[in-house]
Amino acid sequence: MEKLVACVQKKPDAICRLICFPWAGSGTSKLAKWGRLFNDSIEVFCIRLPGRETRLEEPFPKDMTSAVNEIISVLLEKLKEKPFAFFGHSFATYLSFAVALQLKEKYGLEPVHLFMSGAHAPNSASFLAIKSLIPPDEIDDLLILMKIVGGNSEFPSDEDSWTDTVLREDARILHTFSFEKTDMTSPFSCDITYFSGSDDKIFDAKGWQELTSGNTSFYELPGDHFYLMKPSNQSFLIKHITRSIENAGL
């Protein structure tokens, strides 16, 4: 599990695990640190895909299905142990959603809360438009990559694992993800919270309301696509996520 998951502070008595999925082109260095910021009731797992950090020599996932299958095969027993929630930002919103969808469909497991950030809802026309920008075998232009997997900003200058190769491969993974809501039944019953930066591009996020029978809430925080890097916004996220999980009746 250590290959896939970064956990900087183990909390065996935690009532819930927060599974964090980093944005495209990145590793675990930023979100894994959240493990030290939450109280002892929440343990943080941060997902590390192949092709970065300690998995640098491993081949990148060939598609979204491969990435999802690895995550579930490694985490399934842990997810059965105690309640869990997901946080995904940008590209990782779709990865976390795809993992949650398969967990629900195949194993009857559902997060107690989905925290989504900086991305179009997967059932929106805007998301489909992103995928039509360029064929995945021609993804080379950095500006186009940013349109596909990011918003209005440059990647953090201190991102220690970012490379254009990793970004390109993550964009290819995103190109293989598809979701179409074909009936009136919502795939989830948990609450969903969506976060975005006030200076980021406009994301089509309202579609999240169609994907759960639970409550859906939206928060706009000051900043660009990487608003969550600001200490004040990070503090807000930690407090809001903690409150939401503690109010989930675990």
UniProtKB/TrEMBL annotation:
Signal peptide: none annotated. GO terms for biological process: lipid biosynthetic process; monocarboxylic acid metabolic process. It comes from the Eukaryota. GO terms for molecular function: fatty acyl-[ACP] hydrolase activity. Residues 17-244 form the Thioesterase domain. Its EC number is 3.1.2.14. InterPro entries: AB_hydrolase_fold, TEII, Thioesterase. SUPFAM superfamilies: alpha/beta-Hydrolases (SSF53474). Belongs to the thioesterase family. This is oleoyl-[acyl-carrier-protein] hydrolase. It comes from Vidua macroura (Pin-tailed whydah).
